[in-house]
C-alpha cells in the first residue's frame, strides 16, 4: 500500500471516502504480492494496482460498492489454471483482496500512520479481514515498537496480534496471521492481515567508483536507502552520487562497525583493494546481513579468501561472500554490472536460482515470507496463500 499512501493522504485529509483494495494473500503465479493496493476515489479515478490489470475491473466495482456501503469484503479472484482466464486472472494464480471504505470516520488512525511512514518510523497495521469475534471485520490494531492503538475485540487477541506484528515488523514482513476466536495462536477461526511499514532496507556501497554510482541508481530504484562510503574525500562527493541518500567519507571498516545494520541490509564492496577490503570484511562477516557481495577477479578473490582464513574465518563464513559479485549476464559497463549485482541481490532475497525462466518448471514466483518449513507457505494449497503465517511459536 506504500505506493498509494501519498494520494490516500490527500483524500483522507480532504474528508473524502475512498474505496481501498489490498492484496492480503496470494497463491501460485499471482502478479502482485501481499500489500499491493488500489484506491478508488469519489470522482472515479484510480491509483495503484492489485493484479497488474488482470482483475482490476472487478475490483474497481467492488471498491465502489464498499465505498458506498462502508461494508468491507474479502474476495478471492482466480480458481485454477484451467479456468483462471475465464475469471480474469490470466496468469493462472489466485489473489485474496480485502476491500474497504477509508475515511476519517472509518480509519481515524491513518494520519498518524502516514506520518510514521513519511518520517521512517516503523509501524504495523493489523486488520481483521475474516473470522469470528467481538469486533467486526475491518477492525484494526496499529502496532508500534512502544505503543498500540485500537482493538480487535479482546485483550488476549490484542496481545497475541501485538506480539506477532512486532516480530513481523522487525523482519519487514507483510502477510496473514491466523488465530482462534480469542487470539489462540493455534486457531484458524480468524485471519488478521499485518501490513509492515518498516524503514527502507539499507544498501551500503563501499568504493566511490563509477560502478558504485550505477549501483546507487539501481538501488534507489529498487527502494533501498543507499549509502556510498569511501575513505577518499576527493571521490566520495554528493555530486558524483546524487541518487545516494548519503555519501560518507570514512574508512569502510570503521564506518560499518559504527553504523546500524540488520538482517535486511545489503552490503556491496567494490573497492577490490586489500587494505580496504580485508578489514571491512572482517567486520562485515560478523554482522547480520541479507547479502554481502565483493567485487574482484578470481585471483583477487582467492587472495582475499586466504587473508580472511588467516584471520580465523572458516569456509562456512566465507560461503556468505558473493564473490565475484553478481550474476553472469555478460555485463561490462557500470550500468550492466549494476544490473548483474542487483539481479543477484533480488535472487538471494527471494530464493531465485538466477537461471532463465524458460529452462525451469514449476512456480515462477518464490515465497520466503514465512519461516522455513511453515506449511502455510507451500505452493499448491489455495487455502493457505503465500504470505500466510501461522503464529504457532507458543499457544496463546
UniProtKB/TrEMBL annotation:
This is XshC-Cox1 family protein. It comes from the Bacteria. Residues 11-78, 118-180 form the XdhC- CoxI domain. InterPro entries: MoCofactor_Util/Proc, XdhC_CoxI, XdhC_Rossmann_dom. Signal peptide: none annotated. Residues 364-396 are annotated as: Disordered. Residues 203-345 form the XdhC Rossmann domain.
